[in-house]
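Bug: token stream looks shifted between consecutive jobs. Job 1:
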Amino acid sequence: MAPISAQYLVFFAAASKQEACDEVEQKRYQWPSGVQQVLKGLDSAGLTTSSRIFHVPPSYYEWPLYQRALSMGAPSPAHLCKMVVMENKRWQPAHCKLSGSNEKRRNLKYIGVVVQYVQTVNVSRMTDYVRTLSNNAVARNHFKFRLADEHTARKLTGFAKNGVSPVGMRQQIPLVVCAAIQRLRPPVVWMGGGDIDFKLAMPVQALLDSTQGMIADISDPAQ
């Protein structure tokens, strides 16, 4: 890891610990229920002092990506990510029998994907990757991944649009982290924090460890 990336991680860790001890911690108890859900997930994973929560203004989504990054001290727009819930519209329960009993190797109906805002999910490559989890036991024509509707995504995760977090989900659906995120330097990501006005930041490795996220090259640069 480059020296500047290592130094950034040291700074990030120090800021996280400080915020967990000072007045920010007291304010957390007044935050929305979705954020409380994320905080419980962080606490369960032992990440309370190695992650940061940012409260952003209502105008946040009107800003260009570079302004959003600057407002939270993110190194670049590439460090801003989101979690989306993808649904296989052609999923059938019978396919699970073909794929075996291992949950990760089933023909999964719902999958969470963490992707950068500067990238888009390549559905074709995602399909290829998911098929490999079941040793290609299910034919490709039984896959059609699309974004799950907001109601379904909220039912699964407990979070509303623009606040979806991979930490603290109501149901721990399988998670894929786009490979480009693992190459970020410094290796820190900003994501939904349980509410539209809150963002969660943590080291990439902490994200992978706490969610058992799978790494896959399933994204392309946004046009």
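Job 2, same session, no restart:
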Amino acid sequence: MFMSLLAGIGAAWLIEMLRSRSAKWLIFSGIALLVLVDFFQGPQMLSEVRGRSVDIWLADQSGEGGVAQFPFELVTRAEHTFFTLVHRKPFIGGFFAAYSTPQFRHIEPILSVFPDTQSVSLLRELGVRWVIVDSTRYQNYARVHSAIESMGLRFRIELDGQYVYELR
């Protein structure tokens, strides 16, 4: 901001130094043109943003209950907040930037070790019905899948590497 102030003072000084009215207008017009060029952003490219197949499938599922995404570190990514606009269900997580909520700070260490009995119990307590697991984030997903089913979650569908389980 200080540089802008100095530029303005310098421009005023330069215009005052000129004797000819037409020269003043020429310098003023040149400065105004430079400012406009500086702020010009050009054409903005747009890209279509769509929900994932799993979010479209979830949108068609009736009933109450929230959604949890695993591995749990994914829930703080902005696109997962966007996905809630597609499926329209309550979501455990959110895009917090630097300031997460006290509830999130409480549940994060528990849900970060999913699947285990404590994390599944907490999901029930939070009213989660749908659990989405990104299989590409796990080394041996067959073992993770077995562990999830052994905790009482029912496998419903797999779409593009996203496994959906129902918690009843």
